[in-house]
């Protein structure tokens, strides 16, 4: 293990290098602005991409369980480069799961450049927040290959190795190009917590004031990090549309001890600082002329839906809108005062509240999916869904059966 001072020197040098690139970009130096042409060139330079996809799929069977291989990768990486350890969260479990799901997604979609390039570009930009730079890709790649070869054993073939090497080169080039193109925009802004309301033991509403103007649209989400849990970033939707006071509201459910959500609900308080990554997500309002709007929220998925509702209320003549909000129990239906105030003020809005089991008038009984479906056809509506992924998947299927055109359904 090296001394903390050595680590700090290492990271200071990297920061210096980063500032130099930034200055060069501001002077109009050779820092790429658009990545589209670069990505096309990288794809053209990789003619055996589909064969490599087949080889990667085949190789996965040799290194099962892949989550263990990923953990071997981190062991090798920190053995050879202990100075890299501070770039990662103290618990590697979520990090490993994220890596595994990103790699499986990458392999599954290698034949779809229109999906994979934006995915990698976003990943490249997101890694800036963690202090990851192009220089770190080489030791990571070496550790990845060592982990694959060791686990693959005698069944590991040269073809598998080469396919992984070509893929990794493509991935890191797209990621570094995207990170460089984003150099002039901050990787994150700090934000002060100005309001923390504990709704229940595992649910809180936070309001934060970013230290500088923060651009986003209603329906988008941001990644958050707290100094109480360094290097762990999680996504939360802004629950309000952009407002003049610049405040952002987040709804957070604690899902497990030691997770960021737990820290945000149970530890963070007014006056604490958070870090806020750039806004992401495509679930923004794009009303089809003449259509009604269907807003559907499950649990804290209410956040994004409430921002969309706030945005609709700012428009001169909002379309007829239904808002369905479902929670497991009566006690978990939160933020009702705000929703009921909107409902009372706006004749174009109809609010329906649902709880999974039991009947508690005026709430409807059943999952939000069942309660929406119970009303019959939803033809002529644009639908916006936010909540647990099982709810979103089930709702998408039901809405398609109930007359909503698939391209008129939004979710993130
Ligand atoms: N906090 C935030 O800003 C955001 C949260 N989310 C996601 O929303 C989810 C909220 O979680 P919880 O509040 O714990 O919700 P939950 O698990 O308590 O479920 C809320 C409601 O969703 C419906 N639902 C859940 N599973 C369903 C299924 N399999 N089929 C049909 N309906 C189902 C039910 O009506 C249920 O009462 C999380 O997965 C979170 O990732 C999504 C976007 C933003």
UniProtKB/TrEMBL annotation:
Highest taxon of source: Bacteria
UniProt entry keywords in alphabetical sequence: 2Fe-2S, Heme, Iron, Iron-sulfur, Metal-binding, NAD, NADP, Oxygen transport, Transport
Any one Pfam family match given in the protein's UniProt record, by short name: NAD_binding_1
Residues covered by the Globin domain: 47-180
Cofactor dependency: heme b; FAD
InterPro entries given in the database record: Cbr1-like_FAD-bd_dom, FAD-bd_FR_type, FNR_nucleotide-bd, Globin, Globin-like_sf, Globin/Proto, MRET, OxRdtase_FAD/NAD-bd
EC number(s) given by UniProt: 1.14.12.17
Keyword field contains Iron: yes
Claim: Phosphoprotein is one of the keywords in the record: no
Major enzyme class: oxidoreductase
Ranges of residues in domain FAD-binding FR-type: 186-286
Reaction equations catalysed: 2 nitric oxide + NADH + 2 O2 = 2 nitrate + NAD(+) + H(+); 2 nitric oxide + NADPH + 2 O2 = 2 nitrate + NADP(+) + H(+)
Family statement drawn from the similarity comment of this UniProt entry: In the C-terminal section; belongs to the flavoprotein pyridine nucleotide cytochrome reductase family. Belongs to the globin family.
Protein name: nitric oxide dioxygenase
Species this protein is from: Micromonospora sonneratiae
Lineage: Bacteria, Bacillati, Actinomycetota, Actinomycetes, Micromonosporales
């Amino acid at each position: 293990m090296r001394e903390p001072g050595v680590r700090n020197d290492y990271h200071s040098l990297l920061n210096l290098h980063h500032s130099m690139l930034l200055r060069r970009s501001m002077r109009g130096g050779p820092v790429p602005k658009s990545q589209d042409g670069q990505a096309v060139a990288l794809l053209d330079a990789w003619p055996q991409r589909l064969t490599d996809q087949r080889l990667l799929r085949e190789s996965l069977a040799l290194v099962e369980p892949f989550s263990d291989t990923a953990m071997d990768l981190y062991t090798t990486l920190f053995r050879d480069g202990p100075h890299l350890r501070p770039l990662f969260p103290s618990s590697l479990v979520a990090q490993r799961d994220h890596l595994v799901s990103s790699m499986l997604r990458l392999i599954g979609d290698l034949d779809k450049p229109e999906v994979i390039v934006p995915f990698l570009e976003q990943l490249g930009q997101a890694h800036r927040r963690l202090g990851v730079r192009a220089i770190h890709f080489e030791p990571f790649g070496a550790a990845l290959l060592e982990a694959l070869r060791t686990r693959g054993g005698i069944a590991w073939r040269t073809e598998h190795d080469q396919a992984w090497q070509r893929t990794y080169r493509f991935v890191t080039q797209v990621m570094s190009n995207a990170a460089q193109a984003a150099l002039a925009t901050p990787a994150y802004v700090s934000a002060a917590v100005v309001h923390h309301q504990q709704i229940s033991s595992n649910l809180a509403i936070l309001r934060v004031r970013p230290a500088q103007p923060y651009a986003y649209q209603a329906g988008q989400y941001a990644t958050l990090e707290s100094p109480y849990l360094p290097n762990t970033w999680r996504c939360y939707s802004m629950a309000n549309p952009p407002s003049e006071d610049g405040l952002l509201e987040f709804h957070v459910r604690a899902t497990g001890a030691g997770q960021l959500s737990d820290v945000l609900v149970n530890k963070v308080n007014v006056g604490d600082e958070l870090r806020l990554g750039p806004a992401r997500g495509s679930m923004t309002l794009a009303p089809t002329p003449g259509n009604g709007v269907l807003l559907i929220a499950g649990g804290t998925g209410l956040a994004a839906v409430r921002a969309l509702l706030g945005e609709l209320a700012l428009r001169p003549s909002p379309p007829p809108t239904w808002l369905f909000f479902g929670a497991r129990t009566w006690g978990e239906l939160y933020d009702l005062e705000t929703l009921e105030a909107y409902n009372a003020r706006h004749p174009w809005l109809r609010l329906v509240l649902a709880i999974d089991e039991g009947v508690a008038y005026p709430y409807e009984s059943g999952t939000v999916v069942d309660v929406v479906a119970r009303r019959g056809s939803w033809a002529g509506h644009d639908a916006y869904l936010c909540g647990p992924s099982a709810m979103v998947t089930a709702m998408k299927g039901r809405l398609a059966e109930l007359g909503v055109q698939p391209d008129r359904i939004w979710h993130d």
